[in-house]
């Protein structure tokens, strides 16, 4: 059985539902991250929290892309009322996502502070092992070798630095999301104000045109009435003259 092709309205409804579901999911993850930040102790807790942060930021980015489609759906509305409804729906969904992104950013900032505190408390600076005095006396030009433990510590430190850098990138991504949404909202509001201004001017022009038409119609009626009165008066005068002439 052939599938019936979907129309633009069904895609619009699907996108709206997807944005609502994604925003709710991000809010749930934000709450979980916030609770976990206050209880993190082991490395696995930090790893789990980092994974949830990445998931939340990824969903926020995807949701922003869907919102861009919803904004374009406004141009496919069949009439002005439907266009206004879609505009208000977009604004509502956009505001919800922007607020959620800001709250998530605050929670991620708390997580970053905990991660930095943990990295600093574990001995953030690693010094290379000293060169043995016998090697110095013998003039050995050998480079100091890191022990296995030192190599593991260095690798762990590098991994932590990369993790912090990734979290910073997530925060920048969230900032771009709510900044771009705010910019889009301002552009849409400006465009809507311009449209309303044009509609108001058009309405005023129509009203003036209607008044001019009514005035013209009243003027024409008055002129026609005067003309008929003069014609009637002239005809009556002619009849009187003829009657007087015949009577004499």
UniProtKB/TrEMBL annotation:
It comes from the Eukaryota. The keyword ATP-binding does not apply. One of its GO terms (cellular component) is membrane. The chain crosses the membrane at residues 229-247. GO terms for biological process: vesicle-mediated transport. Keywords: Membrane, Transmembrane, Transmembrane helix. The keyword Transmembrane helix applies. Residues 154-216 form the T-SNARE coiled-coil homology domain. Pfam families: Syntaxin_2. Signal peptide: none annotated. This is t-SNARE coiled-coil homology domain-containing protein.
């Amino acid at each position: 059985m052939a599938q019936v092709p979907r129309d633009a309205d069904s895609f619009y409804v699907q996108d709206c539902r997807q944005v609502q579901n994604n925003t709710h999911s991000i809010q749930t993850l934000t709450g979980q991250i916030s609770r976990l930040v206050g209880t993190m102790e082991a490395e696995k807790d930090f790893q789990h929290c980092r994974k949830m942060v990445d998931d939340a930021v990824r969903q926020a980015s995807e949701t922003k892309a869907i919102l861009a489609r919803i904004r374009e759906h406004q141009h496919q509305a069949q009439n002005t009322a439907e266009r206004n409804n879609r505009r208000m729906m977009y604004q509502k969904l956009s505001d919800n996502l922007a607020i959620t992104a800001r709250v998530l950013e605050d929670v991620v900032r708390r997580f970053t502070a905990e991660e930095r505190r943990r990295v600093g408390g574990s001995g953030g600076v690693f010094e290379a092992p000293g060169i043995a005095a016998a090697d110095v006396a013998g003039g050995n030009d050998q480079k100091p070798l890191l022990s296995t433990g030192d190599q593991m510590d260095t690798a762990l430190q590098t991994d932590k630095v990369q993790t912090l850098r990734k979290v910073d990138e997530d925060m920048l991504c969230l900032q771009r999301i709510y900044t771009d949404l705010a910019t889009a909202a301002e552009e849409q509001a400006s465009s809507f104000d311009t449209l309303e201004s044009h509609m108001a001017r058009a309405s005023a022009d129509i009203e003036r045109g209607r008044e001019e038409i009514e005035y013209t119609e009243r003027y024409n009626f008055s002129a026609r009435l005067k003309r008929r009165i003069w014609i009637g008066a002239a005809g009556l005068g002619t009849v009187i003259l003829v009657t007087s002439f015949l009577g004499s």
